[in-house]
């Protein structure tokens, strides 16, 4: 686990690259727990972070899921921007973990399809 804490918006890009480029990391569960008010007050955009997560996920072939904690506004804010970057947004960690497991199982089954002997 890596906790970016309050420096999230300043260090996100560098941290994300370091984490996803690590060969020991197979996936990213991004937990976003920033209150609504600072995002509104400082007009903090989330789209650059979503875009970068999507690009790195595609490039490195590692799944990324975001789990959002906070008000309905925060969840809707993420949902409004995440669809174009194809990043699943969850409101519960248990659902995010199940989704990662499903993605993993799906990738294994796809790899095994190539190992089916011809009849």
UniProtKB/TrEMBL annotation:
InterPro entries: Succinyl-CoA_synth-like (IPR016102). Gene3D superfamilies: Succinyl-CoA synthetase domains. SUPFAM superfamilies: Succinyl-CoA synthetase domains. This is Ligase-CoA domain-containing protein. It comes from marine sediment metagenome.
């Amino acid at each position: 686990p890596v906790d970016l804490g309050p420096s999230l918006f300043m260090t996100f890009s560098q941290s994300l690259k370091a984490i996803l480029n690590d060969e020991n990391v197979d996936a990213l569960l991004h937990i976003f727990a920033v209150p609504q008010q600072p995002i509104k007050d400082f007009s903090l955009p989330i789209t650059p972070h979503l875009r970068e997560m999507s690009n790195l996920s595609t490039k490195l072939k590692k799944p990324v899921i975001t789990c959002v904690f906070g008000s309905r506004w925060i969840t809707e804010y993420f949902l409004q921007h995440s669809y174009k970057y194809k990043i699943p947004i969850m409101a519960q960690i248990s659902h995010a973990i199940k989704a990662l497991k499903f993605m993993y199982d799906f990738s294994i089954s796809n790899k095994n399809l190539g190992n089916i002997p011809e009849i």
